[in-house]
Amino acid sequence: MKEYLEKFSAEVRELIAVLRRLAGELDYNAYLVGGCVRDLLLGMKNLDLDIVIEGDGIAFAEKLSAHLGVKVVFHRRFGTATCFIHSHLKLDIATCRREFYPEPGHLPVVSAGLLKDDLFRRDFTINAMAISISDPGFGRFIDLFNGRSDLNNKKIRILHNLSFVDDPTRILRAVRFEQRYGFRLETATLSLLKKACQMALLEKIQAQRIRDEIVLILKEDDPLKPLKRLKQLTGLGFINKHLYFPDGKSRLLKKAASTIRHFNRLSPLRRRLEGWVVYLTALLDGLSSGEAKKVLNKFVFAKGVQRRVLSYIKESDKIIRVLKKPQIKSSRVYNLLEPLSYETIILIKAKSSSSKVRKEIDCFFNLSGFMRLHISGCDLNALGIKSGPCYQEILKKVLNARIDARVNTLDEELALASRLAKIRS
Ligand code: CTP
After folding, report:
1. Which residue puts its alpha carbon closest to atom 15 of ligand 1?
2. pTM of the entire structure?
3. How far is CA 277 from CA 229, 273, 285, 342, 389, in A?
4. pLDDT tens digits, the chain, 425 residues: what are they?
5. Distance (Å) from CA 34 to ligand 1 centroid
6. Which terminus of the chain has fewer Cβ atoms in its 10 Å neighbourhood, N or C?
């Protein structure tokens, strides 16, 4: 298996060499586990490395932090730590643990264990493989549940019959991995997943845990695939009983994906869109604002996410109507769209089939961020205009005139500002 470790980039291999040395100094066994092993075998890049330690994971992370001088966030209650090696390379370190579910769907009771305990508590065979990165046995591949064979046969398989009952979020994870890799749920797993759905287990666990998995689905490269599969397997009633997934919704999500790609390609200098917020909004499109609020509150989405989703739900139809009007002034478009987030505007663009609306939105994006007045409050002061709230009002009117190309130069802006001040006084 050593040759598999060779597949990592030089940077990761150097890091593994450090981990190997530190594990030796502490006399611990250290293993790479989970998604990074799965993706290594699949030949896919994954720079989120999960390490488990037979020993004290926190002590190991402290030593690593001192050695590399990198930032480490400790979650001492869970015996885990996250090290940020570079912005793109992250290391999660945990003590090997044994888990016991006192009640279905509740969080497990955790105690320190061996590697085999840690692998057995995992969701699917393809996520339960490990590679030793300490001595003796550096590079040894550990596959207690035939994960490699499932990977070769493109199967998602749980490790034991109570897996979905213990942790119903695995229903969402199973669908996510199945669709991401183009795998299939193995027969017994599929039937247990369906049973878990019939028992409405997703509705019985803490909503934030479901939310985190929904967000992961929405962050997939193509979230439409797992959403459609979920619709087929469970329906989306666990999110909201009024949430359906008609064909129009698939079209909206597809259109959202191409609109996001177009925006990111044409506007590389702007802040990146939070694509998953666009998809979440598309998912909730069609709900009344009352029902959308219920979803956002139930799953405790952050305030900023709630604001963006709700502004779309409440305003998109009106905005599309206004933008469709012939000969609407650029300044009106600007003032209509400027208070909205990029995510909201992108979905409005995706939703509208009118080329006029889409063109108006493109023009807005061309203007926004680059539209700057030549003048500022200091110029108004120099013109002898008494300072106060009127400054904002005058500057806004001059900006509207600039957007509508009624003024273009510094002198024209100054002349307009002074005219506006005279009218006011
Ligand atoms: N895991 C699990 N059950 C869960 C969540 C996580 O067994 N409900 C285990 C799996 O072994 C998984 C690992 O924890 O591989 C890490 O979880 P996560 O980072 O969520 O998934 P990855 O497998 O790394 O997948 P991704 O590529 O989506 O990050």
Report:
1. 34
2. 0.90
3. 20, 8, 12, 10, 35
4. 567 788 888 889 999 999 999 999 999 999 999 999 999 999 998 889 999 999 999 999 999 999 988 888 998 877 899 998 887 889 999 999 888 877 777 787 878 789 999 999 999 999 999 999 999 999 999 999 999 999 999 999 999 999 999 999 999 999 999 999 999 999 999 999 999 999 999 998 999 999 999 999 999 999 999 999 999 998 999 999 999 888 889 999 999 999 999 998 877 666 678 999 999 999 999 999 999 999 999 999 999 999 999 999 999 999 999 999 998 999 999 999 999 999 999 999 999 999 999 999 999 988 877 778 889 889 888 888 888 888 989 998 988 888 888 998 899 999 899 899 888 77
5. 6
6. C
- Compute the distance from residue 176 Cα to the ligand 1 centre, in Å: 11
- For ligand 1, which residues put their CB under 6 angstroms from it? 34-35, 48, 50, 122-123, 127, 167, 169-170, 173
Q: Which domains does the chain have, with CATH numbers?
A: 2-150 (3.30.460.10), 154-235 (1.10.110.30), 239-367 (1.10.3090.10), 377-424 (no CATH)
Distance 88 CA to ligand 1 centre (A): 18
Residue type present at position 38: R
Mutate to test the pocket of ligand 1, among 46, 118, 127, 214 (most ligand atoms within 8 A of CB): 127
- Residue 209 Cα to ligand 1 midpoint, Å, equals 13
